[in-house]
Every structure is written in C-alpha cells, then in structure tokens.
Write a structure and sequence with these properties.
- The protein has helices spanning 40-48, 70-76, 93-98, 113-118, 120-123, 135-148, 165-181, 193-199, 222-229; strands spanning 2-11, 14-24, 29-33, 55-60, 63-64, 78-81, 153-157, 185-190, 202-207, 210-216.
- It is an alpha/beta fold and 231 residues long.
- The protein has a six-stranded mixed β-sheet with strand order 6-7-8-3-9-10, with helices on both faces. It has a four-stranded antiparallel β-sheet with strand order 2-1-4-5, with helices on one face.
- The protein starts with a strand and ends with a helix.
- 41% of the residues are buried.
Length: 231
C-alpha cells in the first residue's frame, strides 16, 4: 500500500530526514519508533502531504503521489491523525466528525454506526464542543474523524501521548480491530514501547532522521530495538 523511498526533508537550511525508506502493507500495523526529535512526525507530514519532501519518491497503492497535496492524498485514501489531535475546539463533536465528509461522495456523507461502536463515548457527546472534551476523548474523536474518510492508509502520530491508561487500552483494541479487517495499512508513530511492540507487525527504528534498524516484529531483536530507539 505504501512505499516511500529515499525521502529527505529540509526546514530552511536544516536537514531533518536523510534518505528515509519505509513501507506498509494492507492488514498490518507498521510502527515507526524513536525518541523525540528524530524525524518521525516530519515523516508523517510528508506521507500526509502537509509538508513536501525535498527529494525521494512516495508510492500509494502503486501510484506515484510524490508531492501531492493533503486534499489529494485524502481523496486517494490517506487518513491522518496528527500529533496534538487538532480538534476544532469551537465545533461540536458532530461537526468535527462531519469535517471528514470532504473527500466522500454525496451518498457516503454520514457517520457509520461502526464509529460509535468503536468509540461509544462520542455518541453521548455529539452536541458538546470539541474543546470541552478531555484529552482522551479528543484523541478518540480525531481517530474517528480520520476513519470517516474510509482510508486505505491510516497514519497515527503518537496516539497515546497524554492519554489515561484506560483510553490507551481502548485505542489499542481499535487499532487491532482495524488491522483484522484487512482493508487498510496502518502506520503508527509511537514512543510508548510496549504499546507499539504489542501491536506491530513490522517495525522501523529511527535516529537523527534516518532509519537505523528494521525488522518484522516476530523476529526482531528486542534488545537491539530498545538500543536503537533509546529506551
């Protein structure tokens, strides 16, 4: 589903990514791990189209989407849950969910019941403003909003950051369920080692803007992985 090759990224004169190659398959969770500041979020910004790469190529389901805009990638099937969630604080939960309708055909512009099955709390808060929700509730809303777009590639940036343990557990169950559907590739950027390792089918470890280690989770050297990601 995803094949990115030799991606580089600059912010002004500073080079953030150095020839990064990552891939992700349908029906699998691909984890990108590493400490703060190694370029994980910058990589997802390229994959979501919110920041253009300086060089390299990006293939989505066999189609070259290098340099595509965020709206073009959303229409192509990329769902993005950014770090910090970016909920619209003055819009209601219902209105936040409906912002996901933008890349859907008219007949698909509704919130599927499955969204409320995955995140029951949202159904009880449809008329509450997004800014009045707790951090965990906002994270659930952000994931739900991305799922409404019917993604083929779901990008999750630090979904456990600042979230209480019971919500982390629920988010893990949702990710595992989405993988079991076998209709999307999931890329999970995460620092919470045990959470990421428990979900991963394939892991990339990043340091200083480079992939320094990668392996299927089933055969990974856990000690080497911990050393690579600095935990």
């Amino acid at each position: 589903m995803l094949a990115a090759t030799d991606l580089t990224l600059h912010y002004g004169s500073s080079q953030i990514l150095h020839g990064v190659c990552v891939s992700a398959r349908l029906g699998e969770v691909t984890c990108i791990m590493g400490s703060n500041g190694v370029g994980k979020t910058s990589l997802l910004k390229i994959l979501s189209g919110t920041h253009a790469s300086s060089a390299g190529s990006y293939m989505l389901d066999g189609i070259d989407v290098t340099g595509a805009r965020p709206d073009q990638l959303a229409h192509a099937g990329v769902g993005y849950v950014p770090q910090g969630r970016f909920i619209f604080p003055m819009l209601t939960v219902r209105e936040n969910l409906e912002t996901g309708f933008g890349c859907l055909a008219a007949r698909e512009k509704f919130v599927p019941d499955e969204i409320y099955d995955l995140f029951p709390v949202l159904k009880t808060m449809l008329d509450r403003r997004g800014g009045d929700l707790s951090g965990g509730q906002q994270q659930q809303l952000a994931i739900a909003r991305a799922l409404i777009t019917k993604p083929k590639l779901l990008l999750l940036d630090e979904p456990t950051e600042g979230i209480q343990p019971n919500i982390i557990s629920q988010i893990g169950e949702v990710i595992a369920y989405l993988r079991s559907r076998q209709d999307m590739a999931i890329v999970l950027v995460e620092q919470y080692f045990d959470f990421a390792f428990g979900l991963a089918d394939y892991i990339f470890a990043m340091t200083r803007g480079e992939v320094v280690y990668e392996s299927p989770a089933a055969t990974i050297d856990k000690a080497r992985l911990r050393q690579s990601v600095g935990v």
